[in-house]
Amino acid sequence: MKILVPLKRVPDPELKTKIKDGAIDLSGATWVVNTFDEYAVEAALRLIENAAEGTRDGEVVVVTIGPEDAAQQLRSALAMGADRAIRVDAEDQNLDAGVVVATLSAIVEAEKPDLILMGKQAVDGDANQVGQMLAGKLGLPQATFAASIELAQDKTSVTVGREVDAGVEYKKLPLPGVVTVDLRIVSPRAVVNHVTPDSHEYQEGPRYASLKGIMQAKKKPLDVKTLADLGVTAAPVTRQLSVELPPPRAAGRKVESVAELVAALRSERKVI
Fold first, then answer.
1. In CATH terms, is domain 2-243 a member of 2.60.40.1120?
2. Residue 125 — pLDDT band, cuts 50, 70, 90?
3. How do the domains of the chain map onto residue ranges?
4. Is the pTM above the cut of 0.85?
5. What distance in Å separates the CA atoms of residue 53 and residue 60, rounded to the nearest whole number?
6. Average pLDDT over residues 152-156
């Protein structure tokens, strides 16, 4: 089984960013793997391995679109256990969802994965659209916001559990397909592949790269392509005009009664 995991490098969300001249100042940014994409890598590894025996039956390929520095985030995924990586050389300012989808479509056509597994969104833009657009462009079945994944014993389909307002919704997808993952996908029993014993319980969250994994990552294949190699033109149709902080919130005040609260909401805030 081959699983393709697209991932994106993002500024470390734990660090405070500044706005300069109407844009986020990334001059001193520390780049990390997008959180949800890291979860997708973990889920992909769980799908192909026998965690009790330390063996695996399949391949996890990670791909990113970005400058040379983005290779560091690919190496992080390789250190976790991914088998090989592809970097498509491009500058961030020349990318939008359409360019990314066109690029990933070309990669999928070349790699022929059984499953495309990706984070539900990037924590920098929070757009949540690449997975859906990619499935639409490729004409593949999709399930978004996966909280659990169960691989069929014959590996021809997956059953995805999605948290919805009324509880959990389950969708069965024939493979190949596209699945985007939410944060609960890295809970101890969220991924079932019918190879790892049912009694096995993973640690909460994605696995840490071991020293052995870090050393092995340096030797694993990392292929570099250009947009031109894939027949893609860097012609984004959307652009960011400016970034600004929201206005400071006004201080609240106490009211003496429900009637006063309703009157304030109607006359002052004009929300009812």
1. no
2. confident
3. 2-243
4. yes
5. 18
6. 96
